[in-house]
Automatic annotation (TrEMBL):
It comes from the Bacteria. The keyword Lipid metabolism does not apply. Residues 1-154 form the N-acetyltransferase domain. Gene3D superfamilies: 3.40.630.30. One of its GO terms (molecular function) is acyltransferase activity, transferring groups other than amino-acyl groups. Pfam families: Acetyltransf_1 (PF00583). CDD domains: NAT_SF. Keywords: Acyltransferase, Transferase. This is GNAT family N-acetyltransferase.
């Protein structure tokens, strides 16, 4: 299992965009598949925020996680560095890959000098808490209650 920059494997952008859009597309009115793909193409141009890490087994794409300045406009003032779009393909779940990607993103943020990292999650608070994230309040995004969480990467 390797964690790599999407920037080094841009050929995976279309598949990743399809997965992300199928998972989260219903939450955002204007976030079409084309927009999702354009965002990831942009991430694939750089190895600093905003960017995306991917998990590969050989050539096979298993998952991804992103580091972005803003994950929801409503939370713009809450934090300026977010773990976003953690995704593991269904066949690869439950064997630690989500934890591996999350830890890799936190380590990457530390390398970037990011002192505090946030995320929001509707239902995976327990998963992130096991990985050292702290609860940082709650919010409601488009009618969905979410947990806000943070971690100090350094
Ligand atoms: C959430 C998600 C990323 C987790 O990915 P994953 O690879 O299954 O995560 P892990 O395997 O690291 O951990 C998941 C659970 O499996 C358990 N687990 C980890 N390794 C395991 C193993 N070898 N055997 C059995 N269980 C294991 C973990 O303890 C964890 O348990 P928990 O639910 O009590 O926290 C994945 O389910 C996903 O992509 N979901 C859809 C998108 C999504 O909801 N993303 C999160 C947005 S906030």
């Amino acid at each position: 299992m390797d964690i790599r920059y999407l920037a080094d494997h841009p050929g995976h952008v279309p598949a990743l965009a399809r997965w992300h859009h199928a998972q989260w597309g219903h939450l955002y009115d204007d976030w079409t598949l084309d927009v999702a793909e354009a965002e990831l193409r942009d991430h694939a141009t750089r190895r600093v925020m905003p960017t995306t890490l991917i998990a590969l087994e050989g050539d096979q794409l298993l998952g991804s996680v992103s580091l972005v300045e803003e994950d929801a406009p409503e939370l713009r003032d809450h934090g300026d560095a977010w773990l976003a779009s953690l995704y593991v393909r269904p066949e690869a779940r439950g064997r630690g890959l989500g934890a591996l990607l999350t830890r890799a993103l936190v380590a990457f943020a530390a390398d970037q000098g990011i002192e505090r990292l946030w995320l929001f999650t509707p239902e995976h608070e327990h998963f992130y808490r096991q990985l050292g994230w702290r609860s940082d309040g709650t919010a409601t995004l488009r009618g969905t209650p979410v947990h806000l969480m943070d971690i100090l990467p350094a």
